[in-house]
Design goal:
This is C-di-GMP-specific phosphodiesterase. GO terms for molecular function: cyclic-guanylate-specific phosphodiesterase activity. InterPro entries: Cyclic-di-GMP_PDE-like, EAL_dom, EAL_sf. It comes from Loigolactobacillus bifermentans DSM 20003. By secondary structure, the chain is an alpha/beta fold. It has a domain of 129 residues: TIM Barrel (Alpha-Beta Barrel), CATH 3.20.20. The chain contains 7 helices and 9 strands; from the N terminus they run ββαβααβαβαβαβαββ. The chain has an 8-stranded mixed beta barrel with strand order 1-2-3-4-5-6-7-8. α1 packs parallel to α3.
Amino acid sequence: MIRFFAQPKYSITTVKLVGYELFIREQATVGEDWRLPADFSQFKPQQIIHLLAETLKTFPQGLSCISFNLDQEQFVDLNYCRLLKTLQAQTPIRLYVELTERQGKGTASTTLQELVHAAQAYQQAGLAVCLDDVGTGTNQYELVRTMAAYTVEYKYALQNVRGRLPGDEIHTQIKFWREMALRQQKTFALEGFEYDTDNSLIAAFHPDIVQGYYFGQPHILPIAADFN
């Protein structure tokens, strides 16, 4: 069984909840712990988007955005784009696809040209593309620069660098990506807030969106069938 877990996303401008980022979790047997799937390729696009559609039916009115993650292998599978286009037409909530820093489980590497082509398709379908975890894994400067015309948001993840980089280096990286987002008129999200001291980053860099355990931990979401 799979379900989405949700983590709240807050706007710094309005100081209000604007939406959620959704994470897939699986449960091998009823009653066992929910866990991160080892291989996302085991799930078909139809299965994931059906789950997303059934989950959206349970959300309260007033949310402006919902995002969920696709690795590179999933992102270039345009069945996701086709199904999401249909779903977007059925909901007022803006759907964001977050391209993660992970390649995926496939044997063939995804090319930058394939990623750009896919991002263009999502844009033409009226879907928003966010580059997740910029500066981490495969989501480095060259990829971000090349895909800029087809993306609307950059997200920097504090949890990826906390404890690995000194504070000054983290600030330098946040400043780099924040300024790049401003120049290109992209939304800038900062995630991974965990402590009171992290709030100083809001005043220093003025992210548009914030999220993290400090603001709310991921929690399991019901689907419409649960209420039947």
